[in-house]
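Schema walkthrough. Field components (list of strings):
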Amino acid sequence: MGGKHYLPLTDEDRSEMLAVIGVKTVEDLFNDIPSEVRLKRELDLPPALAESEAISHLNSLASKNKHFHNCVSFMGAGVYDHYIPSIIKHVTGRSEFYTSYTPYQPEISQGVLQAIFEFQTMICQLTGMEVSNASMYDGGTAVAEGAIMGCGATRRSKALVSRSVSPFYREVLRNYFNSRGLDLEEIPLKEGHTDFAELDKMLGDDVASVILQQPNFFGLIEEMDGVAEMVHNHKAVLIVSADPLSLPLLQSPAEYGADIVVGEGQGLGVPASFGGPLLGIMAARSKFVRQIPGRIAGETVDSEGNRGYVLTLQTREQHIRREKAASNICSNEALVALGAAVYLAALGPQGMREVARQCIQKAAYTREQITALKGYEELFTGHYFKEFAVKVPGDPAELNKKLLEKNILGGVDLAPFYPELKNTMLFAVTEKRTRAEIDTLVRELEGWK
Amino acid sequence: MRKSKALLFEMSRPGRQGYSLPSCDVPEKPVDELLPKKMQRSEPLELPELSENEIIRHYTELSTRNFGVDTGFYPLGSCTMKYNPKVNEDVAVLPGFAFMHPCQPLETAQGALELLYNMEQGLKELTAMDRFTLQPAAGAHGELTGLMVIQAYHRHREDHKRNKVLIPLSAHGTNPATVSMAGYEVVQVPCDDRGLVDLEALTEAVNDNTAALMLTNPSTLGLFEEEIIAMAKAVHEAGGLLYYDGANLNAIMGYARPGDMGFDVVHLNIHKTLSTPHGGGGPGGGPVGVKERLIPFLPVPLVDRKDDQYYFDYDLPDSIGKVHSFYGNFGVAVKAYTYMRMMGAEGLKQASTDAVINANYLMSLLKETYYLPYDRICKHEFVLSARPEKKKGAGAGDIAKALLDRGFHPPTVYFPLIVEEALMVEPTDTEAKETLDAFAEVMKQISEDIDEDAEKVAHGPYNTVVGRLDEVRAARSPIMRWEKDKE
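Field assembly_structure (string):
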């Protein structure tokens, strides 16, 4: 039988235990299941594998996939190939962390609780916000929950989201809003940026929040001057989905007046894992603390005055408030957040600035090289961080196929998300890319068509 | 012995670094040329500065201040804290899984899609559902997805009156919270004196406003809802749907399947039943399965196969859309899939058998000492009441702290709400008889300690790295981040 090495009971144990329970057979323990719903055959599943067989099987599945170790990736759109320091897996691989549950018993969970407290602090340091939670599922759900928070805080039911916010996030947001009966309108684009003149017209006293992304989905940096004022004039809330890796270099959301900062933290040392587990970031000004969803670690003292940490403000949460909770979220991405905290601690202010600097420099170099090629041009004019969109001379899927022959994971085709943007691609260039890799990409692009 | 642990920020020294990056090898431009000054950050970035060695020692010490399944027995009711097989961790970090981009061309992701496809087939068989989405990233996320699907189904039929979801009093707290998230109203259904859903009350409560009944079976009391067929009939006849909260599936694998009981929607907690680690609060996985008539409303994309090629199917015009930026916690699915493949049909059934034997055995031992309000054969868990102990001066929470001193993780306390001073015990399938005996012995000692000196028990724990933490103080004036000037 498979998996026997996970099940310690022996046949002898079982019969002894049944005797103590006072029943004759195992069957007596399942008599309460009505026979109409009993499964009267064995489950039809593939034969059990021994550990070595399982490893072979999984290896063979994994070997059918391309990945960042056998390809050079220029794919972004929210998930990036940033360098992941070795130290992270050694910390997250400590099984006292990864085999624990949510820290309901703080006295034996100080490790996870302190790590979350430190994570929250570092997210605040990056974003300039005053409070952060322990994490959300991903960027998309963080945006959706941020928007719901905005509705709760303003007691209004309409959000305005820019079309320059990731289409992946908008899909999740639309779904959450639709389900809850909240209204969502999209702010149109102007040259790849949010059309703020249009936003001004759309704003009214029924608007709970305005949701922007910085840098936006096209990699462009939105001009945030005066936006918060415009939003706040209508007593609405400014929600910004920020790339944490851009924040050492870019104006922090606090500096331009954001109220709630959400985002995807995958760049903070998290393996891409085909899009999950990711890391949703959720931070806000302290006045929104009662509306923040999910777990928050807080400092306190023990009976002897020693500093310690607990899950706090639990009266916002589902297990206490039930249907009146801020959200239904319980499990989040705690272990991923732990890894991100290790990343931030390892890089420190200097390393984070260096990563951001190399991203912007390498992306600028790549963009300059590509847009100089015949048939390629810049899609939008503006300022970029690590991602940019270009027009390409043909079908992006065909181009990507050709790049794959050289083991390059090319750009993301924009047309599925923006039907008006045919033959355009989004390229991401992280600090990990070398000049040689970039030059190879450029050569391949040049030779196409 | 007891002491606080310094924070990363307090250990920081300017100039230290814990990273190494190659130098930038492209021609650089002045930053101001790439980014106007006003777009640049002006406030300082105050992250800690530490060397790698210091960081490792910091987190190693933190890990010693934490209790996991690998540390010891973890009978946290409703959380199914079973052993997390090590091989699962190894395969999930294979570069061919861990370093895949979600947008990479499908012909370069065939192995990942095959895994998701196979996983879905396994989950369908395990639960008797017709299709699954693996997008939800946790159980609560699965609940929300399931209710969204139910909502889309009713709306599609233009049955707009259905605005209520029935929930038994014994339900997980997430259920009512999810109902609100989906814009529905909660209707509480009482339990009868056997701890089961009161069928009569349920039948009275269902009507043409009923969108769904959310049910955990076995319930949070660890009891199988014997009237499930009648319950399903009542809800279906009123036009409602049945939602199965799969948190407790570990009790019945291979014995009974939610789809055969009449459930229309199911979510599973793969970080419970299918052995993936909980990570101190995630990442989890909450796949959602549905019956045929609800398939059109599932999130996109679904995973399908045509001529040996796997692909993402986005062609579901009535789909609710997406609930996750990409395809959910793929890395967690890899672990759960590995577990299912290693256990096989017989192994999964044996896991449920052993989970139920362990629970009933431990219940038999503990009911000699503690009050068992619902004294009947249980499934994977059971609930004691520390009401008598509370009267002596130490309640469920105090018993939990006393267990910390003796090296055990306590049961879930004060839940479910229908039992006063509840201690909800779930030993799982991966514990040895000797462990259960030792736990029962310790529980007996604690009971004796309460008889002797309840006051002392009420002030524990005594052997932990910190003493009992003041949660009221933490909530009254919340400190949720370290701040420099408050050092």
